Structure formats: structure tokens, C-alpha cells
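Team,

Forwarding the record for the chain on the shared tracking sheet. I've put the sequence and predicted structure together so nobody has to dig through attachments.
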Amino acid sequence: MKEDYYNVIGVMSGTSLDGVDLAHIQFHKNSDKWTFQILESETVSYSNEWVHTLKSAVDFSAVELKKTNLDYTKYLASVISSFIKKHEIENLDAVCSHGHTILHQPEKGITLQIGNLPEISSIIGQIVVCDFRVQDVLFGGQGAPLVPIGDRILFSEYNYCMNLGGFSNVSYEENGKRIAFDISPLNTVLNFYANQLGLDYDDKGAISRSGKINHSLLGELNELPYYHRKHPKSLGFEFVKETVLPLVEKFKINTEDKLRTFTEHAAMQIALALPNKKGSLFITGGGAYNNFYIERIQKHLPDVTIIIPDVKILEFKEALIFALLGILKLRGENNVLSSVTGAISNHCSGVIYNLK
């Protein structure tokens, strides 16, 4: 029986701006079964300057975006190079990188992930597979979410796979098709209000736990049109900036109550998103550390078993799956599902930069 082996690095930067996630992973494929081992992994936090730039870039001019893209590509390459050197990683098949999403407006045919310029390959001295979203948007898809094919291949034993990051998203099988979509903003909003209290985030949801629900705000949040749209659908930071934050700010309530109300809203939307309120729910992403939020999800889904994996999978699942997407691209196999994104067909997305 032929066994395929891949030695790769997966790289991910999410909308919550925690930093750059890097994971050194070995994959094996025996027959139709994929297995993996995460060897080394770490998150390299962004400087305050980069956080400010990445938050502000949605409003940049074309000239400013072009410069930022080049600067970020060089920065990302330096982070990856340092990771390779630090862990003495050798004989890589590829570095598979998502980049960082700045613009995501698929309804206008626009998605931009910076950090995916050709220079990245020559700087780090490795084959790089990246820029996975653009082709899907050109094919009429949402360009997101892309992780569900990895859920199907690597985590098929769970009824639902959910990531709690800057946004919450879910994937599951329905009538033989993988269904997936963004549910609601999460850490993009919770962190915004924690920042107002001088904190990076609401540790374990303690501040939210101390607040009170404002039911008028909760009702208005739940009535936002996005939540009543059918999938496929996806969210970008523009939705938070242009729709969610202005709505919350209409209410002259303290920050603790804003956090409490939004936490309840986000938990309710997760419960509404699952078609069958039973089975196993596999949760990853930084939001899994928010104990109060997990409690609220469980409250709204009493018949669902919540599973939170070990820390490497919990924190680096997206880096893991973008590594897999890169391998599938190298193999010439489909790595984007039209049932998830709404594209005209399944397809093999991404760009390969070979060393000159």
C-alpha cells in the first residue's frame, strides 16, 4: 500500500489579530485516510504598530495597500524564517500560508489577503503555497470559509466543527455535502470592548460574566439581516466596523453590559445555526478559552456534547488545515468545496511559488 508523506509548515493570521500562527506538521496518507502530527507550533504576537496597521488597512488607498502588502510580505517571511531557524526544521516540502485578510467583499468580487506576494518564497528560501481565496471569489464563491474541507478530511468523527476566533464559523455534513458558513462576529467585538478597559481580551469571560444583558440591544443584534440569510455566507471586518459597533454604540450602557449582551447574542446565534441540536460539537480557536461563552453555548444547546481538544489542535487548527490545503494544491486535488462557498464547482485553489 502506497504511503504519501509531507513535511510542511502551516501559517495563519486571523481577524482577531492575536498574531501569526505557525505549525510544523507531518502528514501521512494511507489509501484514503489522512493522519497528521503537529510537531512545533507557536504564535508570534503582532507589535502595536502592526495591530494598528492591520486594523486601519480597510480604509487605505490603493497606493497605501500596495506598500502595506509588500511590507507585510517581508514581515511574514521574516517570522517564518525565524520559526524554521529556531526549530531547525529541514527538508520542507512547502510553506502553506493564508496571509492576512484586509478586504473581504465577495458580493463585489473583492477579497484581499496581504502577505502573499512572490517575494515571500525567495526570502524564506522555500516553496510557498498561498492566496487560497481569490480564485473562489472569481468562481462566484464567497472565498470563505475554506477550513471545512479539512474538517471533512481530518475531523469527520464530529457532527459539527466550530472555530471561535475573530468570527465564529461552523461546518457539518448535510445530505452528503459539506455545509459551512460564518455565524457571527466574536473576538473582533469582544476584544474591542476589552481594549476599552485597558485589556487585550476578556480573560475567561470574567468581565462579561459580571455584566447585565440589555434586552433591547440583544433584540436588535439578533435581527440584523445577515443572520436571516441562507448559507453560503461569510463575514469580514467591514461588517463589524460598519454595522455591529455602530449598533452597540447607540446604547449608552457600560462596557461590562456591552460584553455581556454581545456574548449572549453570539451564543444564541450558534444555537440557531445548528440544524440539529444534538450530537458532538468540536470547538477550536481562542474563544474556547472564554469559559463564560462556552457555558452560554451549552445553556442554549443542552443536548449537544461540547468537545475541546488538546492545546495544539485548539490553537493551531487553522494553520493545520491551511497546511493541508497547500498539500492538496501541490497534489492538484480539489481543496475548496462549492457546497461551502457557493462557487460554480469544487476546485483546486491557491498559488504555488517555486524557488527560482
